[in-house]
Amino acid sequence: MRAILKAPLYKITLLATLAMASSCKNLEAREAISTRTSTTTDFSIERNKELYAAQEAQIEEIIAADSLDYQRSASGFYYTFIKQDSIITDRAKYGDRVTIEYNISSIDNQPIYTTSELSPLTKSLEQEYGIFKGLREGLKLMQENDEAIFYFPSYAAYGFYGDQDRIGINTPIRSRVKLLKIE
């Protein structure tokens, strides 16, 4: 009777060992079935390039007709100083707290938000909320008491969503800014 029990136990142990050994096979990464990107993404990229080019051309046409000398920033917006201190002092930088007066208008200078509605505003340049991307970058070009005019394409302003009040989606804007204080 003992011999009968040993034979099946031996076979079961052998089968279990073989099953475990064969399951330890190295896993290989599967290759992608398709390397093509989404057509929706491609369409969105093309649309954004066209939108940016149209806004850039519109802004360049407006500043070409203006008597002031505008410069293009590395971030893609245009600016000119109305008032700039001839003595170079510290410029606003990331982490600084700034107090500003500013307005926002359409690029053809129709008021959207007046200075009295928005000013004075005190914010840290590291805060995302309250100061849009282009304005944060523009303030880094300024010293205390400087005053400048900025033209921001929509991607540097309120972008795809607008401000969900008076500034529509994908709307380029103009802003006149005075930097009152850097802390």
UniProtKB/TrEMBL annotation:
One MF annotation (Gene Ontology) recorded for this entry: peptidyl-prolyl cis-trans isomerase activity
Domain PPIase FKBP-type, residue spans: 95-183
EC number: 5.2.1.8
UniProt KW keywords: Isomerase, Rotamase, Signal
Signal in keyword set: yes
Domain of life: Bacteria
Keyword Nuclease (UniProt): no
Stated family: Belongs to the FKBP-type PPIase family.
Protein name: Peptidyl-prolyl cis-trans isomerase
Gene giving rise to this polypeptide: gldI
